Amino acid sequence: MQYDALKTFITLAEVNNFTKTSEILHISQPSVSLHIKNLEQEFQTTLFIRSPKSVQITPTGQILYERAKQIVAIYEAAKEDILAHHHAIQGTLVIGASFTIGEYILPPILARLQQQFPQLEVQVIIGNTDEIIQSAKLLHIDIGLIEGQSHDQELVIHPFMQDELFIVGASDHPLNNRSTLTISELQRQNWVAREAGSGTRTYLDHLFRMNGLQVQSLLTISSNQGVKESVIQGLGYALLSGCAIEREVKNGDMTVLPLEEHHFTRTFSYLYSPTMKNKRNVEALIEFIT
């Protein structure tokens, strides 16, 4: 099996540069060229179109790229299964997490995971929900943790916890001094929201539609911390997870709106490609989060 050649091919397909590929893999540039040449001879096709200024993957190269990712993932899963047979969780676990989970839910889980499995190297990639789903499909991550659900048929998905969201505003906003509020009183207000593609933004858009809320202005920021700071500065209301606002509410920097008979909940889910189903490191994380 040309494992090293496939790893080289995948890296070159992703960075489109022979020099960068050699630097990433810590091998010489002639070795990179030899790996690609051997694969082209084996598959009797041209995998890349080379020019002095660029490297472009061919259609047949793209076919091999998708299969090579699967082959390498299965190979690495087999190695880790053999390690598991010897009662050891080690190697690398790549976790993709949406922002709220990655910033507030995942750290204490990782602390317990690494305490129990000190030989396990963990890498965490944080992005919005859509980005994590795509990374799982492309096998860039071993397992993804997202806000909400996905109906993608290429992935296995299971819920693992419930999350409550709250509408928050600056502590000195006039509406925050009321003992109770109705949802209709939020008409034509200024809002601060996460970007399209995030689970929190999807929920907020659903909230607007279901209650017929018109927005005066909408400020979009691609991080929870940016949203919170903007709310504190009085730039608008926001819908955020309870785990993300706990410290600011406790310190009096922002206030939860006292809405009557409205509770906002959603599901956190984990997902992975079927290729990762029996990967022992993935199973270990699932045991911790469930």
Short description:
The protein is an alpha/beta fold and 290 residues long. It is built from ten helices and eleven strands. Strands 3, 4, 5, 6, 9, 10 and 11 form a seven-stranded mixed β-sheet that branches.
What does this structure look like?
With 290 residues, the protein is an alpha/beta fold. The protein folds into 3 domains: 69 residues, Orthogonal Bundle (Arc Repressor Mutant, subunit A), CATH 1.10.10; 100 residues, 3-Layer(aba) Sandwich (D-Maltodextrin-Binding Protein, domain 2); 103 residues, 3-Layer(aba) Sandwich (D-Maltodextrin-Binding Protein, domain 2). Helices cover 45% and strands 24% of the residues. The chain contains 10 helices and 11 strands. The strands form 3 sheets. Strands 3, 4, 5, 6, 9, 10 and 11 form a 7-stranded mixed beta sheet that branches. α1 crosses α4. The chain is elongated. The two termini are 37 Å apart. The model has no long low-confidence stretch (mean pLDDT 90).
* Number of DSSP helical runs: 10
Which segments are poorly predicted (pLDDT under 50) over 5 or more consecutive residues? none
Structural domains: how many: 3
Q: What is the rounded Rg?
A: 23 Å
Question: Under the CATH scheme, which architecture of the largest domain would be assigned?
Answer: 3-Layer(aba) Sandwich
How far do the termini sit from each other?
A: 37 Å
Order of helix and strand elements from N to C terminus: HHHEEHEHEHEEEHEHEHEEH
Q: Using the coordinates shown, work out and report the CATH topology of the largest domain.
A: D-Maltodextrin-Binding Protein, domain 2
Counting helices, strands and paired strands, the structural category is: alpha/beta
Residue fraction in strands? 15-25%
Total E-strand runs: 11
**What do the pLDDT scores average to?**
90
Highest-level CATH class of the largest domain? Alpha Beta
Can you summarize the main beta sheet?
A: 7 strands, mixed
State the fourth-level CATH superfamily of the largest domain: Periplasmic binding protein-like II
Helix content: 40-55%
Quick one: overall form? elongated
